[in-house]
Write a structure and sequence with these properties.
Blueprint lengths: L9 H8 L1 H13 L6 H14 L3 E5 L2 H11 L6 E6 L5 H8 L3 E5 L10 H13 L3 E8 L8 H10 L3 E5 L7 E2 L2 E2 L6 E5 L13 E5 L2 H10 L22 H32 L19 E4 L2 H13 L29 H9 E4 L7 H14 L1
Parallel strand pairs: 2-3, 2-4, 4-5, 5-8
Antiparallel strand pairs: 1-9, 6-7, 8-9, 10-11
Helix pairs in contact: 2-9, 3-9, 4-5, 4-8, 9-12, 10-12
The chain binds pyridoxal-5'-phosphate.
The site of pyridoxal-5'-phosphate has 15 residues, from helix 4 and helix 5.
Length: 375
């Protein structure tokens, strides 16, 4: 096998950031304030500036960001939360934590994102089951924003709130609106492999809603009140730590440049592979940050395709091999209307190629060549 290509090249980014990261970490080790504190304040302030959101709150993970919004909204048994079936499990997991019912909606063929038509059917399904449809979690899968112009009026007409799961899309915009300012709140993840990744678990949530922000600030720290050991809410330990914040402050500085590089890589893949494979759509109005660059391959050819690439040192990944409605832990929850056939088909067809800001042209040509040869 030829020299293996990394799927994501974090060491290349580490080399670029050089001593800035060492110094950031050393500052935290010197002052020994490890939880929240000045680095988290600085990161939150940089996030507010980056997104334009009124509140940016650092939390321990993307999952906690989602959960904290649901907790602050008082989600409880009998509530239904509409989520896409084709997403990472965390989107639905937090709903189940609170005893509410996730209703799986289908996604759109071209964008992989929540289908507004299926969302309407999902709301009907919830009502038919005597559940209260209170909220929607729309996911910006692979880094491309969902169709908010169509989703927002459906959510508003039904008297629900919209939480956007931007774990994969932080850094982009939707028709000129920054991700982080759409819906009641936005949750994102800084898991190391995300477009903006920490050196461990980390996340953030964004909102313009003062009451929600105040409740989340309390809930991320065990529901604390104004005084120490005064508990006014049932909360959790969802705090961001200073080391991650210090690292993220440095990484955020180069993030716009990295996003531009990801976009160049995606455009170059599309150029090199169009006509050979089913390539993802590139949208000017709803640009992706390319958390993943994902092809579609006929289901019966996918395993062979992946093996052929592996043979040439090109790793691939499948996000995700099953939609949530087919996962053992989630199969008991309802799907919208007539089910989620697009999600089920996509799960059998998608394959992601190496994608990161440091993929040089020669290496990318090796990937393109391997794909062309395999097909
Ligand atoms: C769509 C989606 N939602 C939620 C999460 C959860 O984020 P975290 O791993 O930071 O908890 C992830 C990433 O892992 C994700 O991809």
């Amino acid at each position: 096998m030829t020299n293996p290509i990394p799927f994501i090249d974090l060491p290349a980014q580490r080399r670029r950031l050089g001593p800035a990261l060492d110094e950031a970490v050393a500052r935290v080790m010197d002052h020994c304030g490890f939880i929240l504190g000045r680095e988290v304040d600085a990161f939150e302030s940089a996030l507010r500036e980056f997104t334009g959101a009124r509140y940016a709150l650092g939390v321990a993970s993307g999952t906690d960001a989602l959960a904290l919004v649901l907790m602050a909204k008082g989600v409880r048994p009998g509530d239904a939360i509409l989520v896409p079936a084709f997403t990472f499990a965390a989107t639905a997991e937090v709903v189940v934590w609170l005893g509410a019912t996730p209703i799986f909606c289908d996604v759109e063929e071209e964008t992989f994102n929540l289908s507004p038509d299926s969302l309407v059917r999902g709301i009907e399904t919830a009502r038919a089951m005597n559940l209260r449809p209170v909220g929607v979690i729309a996911v910006d899968l692979y880094g491309r924003p969902a169709d908010y112009d169509r989703i927002e009026p459906i959510v508003a007409d039904a008297g629900m709130w919209l939480l956007t799961d931007a774990a994969q899309s932080f850094g982009t915009t939707y028709k000129g609106r920054t991700v982080g300012t759409i819906g009641l709140a936005t949750a994102t993840s800084f898991f190391p492999s995300k477009p903006l990744g920490a050196y461990g678990d980390a996340g953030a949530l964004f909102t313009d809603d003062e009451a929600l922000a105040t409740t989340v600030i309390s809930m991320r720290m065990h529901g604390m009140g104004a005084a120490a050991y005064d508990h006014v809410e049932i909360g959790m330990n969802g705090r961001l730590d200073a080391m991650q914040a210090a690292i993220l402050v440095e990484k955020l500085k180069i993030f716009p440049d990295e996003i531009a590089a990801r976009r160049r890589v995606a455009a170059r893949y599309n150029e090199g592979l169009s006509g050979v494979a089913r390539t993802p759509a590139i949208s000017e109005e709803e640009p992706s940050v390319w958390a993943q660059y994902t092809l579609r391959i006929a289901p019966d050819a996918r395993d062979g395709f992946r093996a052929a690439l592996q043979e040439r040192g090109v790793p691939t990944a499948v996000h995700y091999p099953k939609p949530l409605n087919q996962q053992p832990a989630y199969a008991r929850f309802p799907s919208a209307g007539n089910g989620v056939p697009v999600s089920e088909r996509l799960a059998r067809e998608v394959v992601s190629l190496p994608m990161h800001a440091y993929l040089d042209e020669a290496t990318q040509d090796r990937v393109i060549e391997a794909v062309r040869a395999a097909l």
